[in-house]
Amino acid sequence: MDDQKKPDQSTSAQPQNGEQDKSRRRESFASQDSQTAKDFLENQLKLEADAREVLPYSFDNCTQPLGALRQSIFSCLTCNPPKNLDDPYTPAGVCYSCSISCHGEHTLVELFNKRNFVCDCGTTRLPSTSPCTLRADPATGSKGVHSQEPAAGNKYNHNFQNRFCGCLEVYDAHTEKGTMFQCLGLGTVETGGCGEDWWHPECLIGLPRDWNKVKKQEAAMTEEEKKEATDGFDEDEETPLPPGFPGEDDFETFICYKCLDSNPWLKRYAGTPGFLPAVYKEGGLKDAEPKEAPAAAEAEKEQANSTKKRKAEDDLEEPDSKRTKEDSPDDHKDAKISTTSTETPKHKHDFLPKSAPTGTFSLFLKEDFRDHLCHCPDCFPNLIPHPQLREEEETYEPPLSEDGDEANGGGSQGTGSLLERGEAALSNMDRVKAIEGVMVYNHLRDKVKEFLKPFAESGQAVGAEDIKAYFEKLRGDAQGIQEAGGRAAAAGAGGQGEDPDGADNRKEQSVTKF
């Protein structure tokens, strides 16, 4: 190893000072690689707090016994490696708890929420070598069930192979830029829909994936600027939404063109209250400012007026009747009955445009879109298969862990601090064994403390070799402590760091510095 000097060391050191340089170099390496016990504990607690923030829920129970749920689903690429799209493939999804407890060391893809899904962990869709450690085998009663029959109602798409959007691009969280949007999902792959796929905004309006990069290159004036635009494209730059795509604040969710084609009755709602104008696959949003259709505006007015009492309407009509037939009360009564009986109440679909926009497009929905869908006897059958159109869905979330207090962020079971886990293990031990264990620990602690004391007084870092040598001589406590203490005191006083025979005694590793 080259003897590289620190900036504050003299570069004209004489040969007779070489041993002191070696000692200083040894101390420098030790101080760089070491940390105090306090720093170590603080860093450990910070890591544990970060873990609790990312995984705030308890992961002790698989959701399979709860049946079909709308829940967060993960695909395990270790158990089910993705293949080519044309090759036979058996997709599988696991719940939040199983993704941590059963597949915590595997490569996972978060699919976010999937509707009416039952956890596949422990079924024939996954290898028997990866059992569900949270569920018990009904036959044996022991944890670790595998090879059970999966739920027949689960629906899958290419997301389970880590492919997303209509472009079928493999998702890489480290390189992906921009925002993706999840379709409300009105159809499965089998029915021509997307299966709640996630879409790139540019793919919904027919632009290439690198549209922003191409746009920057075209805007550059010179070849040098083009090169800079290409080189700087990936440098911490947030990708904007493409032109022709609605602003994120303008809609709540959307229905992709695949799901819309499988439910064409919805196309007439484009541009009406609660819905943005059609966003075409080729060209995007045609109108910069969404405008309500005249018929739709009339529908809103008509619906508002329909809430008034019938008596008020009759009172308004009464003067005309009196002027024409004042001498015939019975005729007036008959006229009122006739007028009322011939008036046909209008439904919301009566005010929709007579024809839907042509072409392939996606439908973007505002927050109140459900209030504007027609529920008449003719239209309601279209809503029955899609409860997400009738009311906002509930998404299952595992219970927050009861372990840990608010200061610790409420971690899940098994995620307490090292101290908490040690105390929990001690409380579960036999009382006699626990007392004996504490006595042994206290004895060892006193011995180690006595060994470390000279290092603390001299400011010397404790190296791995120091600890190894101490425990090798632990059977001769007095001699071992005396020799270790002598070495630390000598190093602190004279800066020497060699064995008596003059060999370099630099520590290649160092541990906690006290």
Automatic annotation (TrEMBL):
Protein name, per record: Putative metaphase-anaphase transition protein
Biased composition (Acidic residues): 391-406
Superkingdom per UniProt: Eukaryota
Compositionally biased intervals (Low complexity): 482-491
Zn finger (UBR-type) start-end: 60-137
Record key words, sorted: Metal-binding, Zinc, Zinc-finger
GO molecular function: ubiquitin protein ligase activity; zinc ion binding
Region (Disordered): 1-36, 216-246, 287-353, 391-423, 482-514
Origin organism lineage: Eukaryota, Fungi, Dikarya, Ascomycota, Pezizomycotina
Record field: compositional bias (Basic and acidic residues): 19-28, 216-230, 287-303, 319-336, 503-514
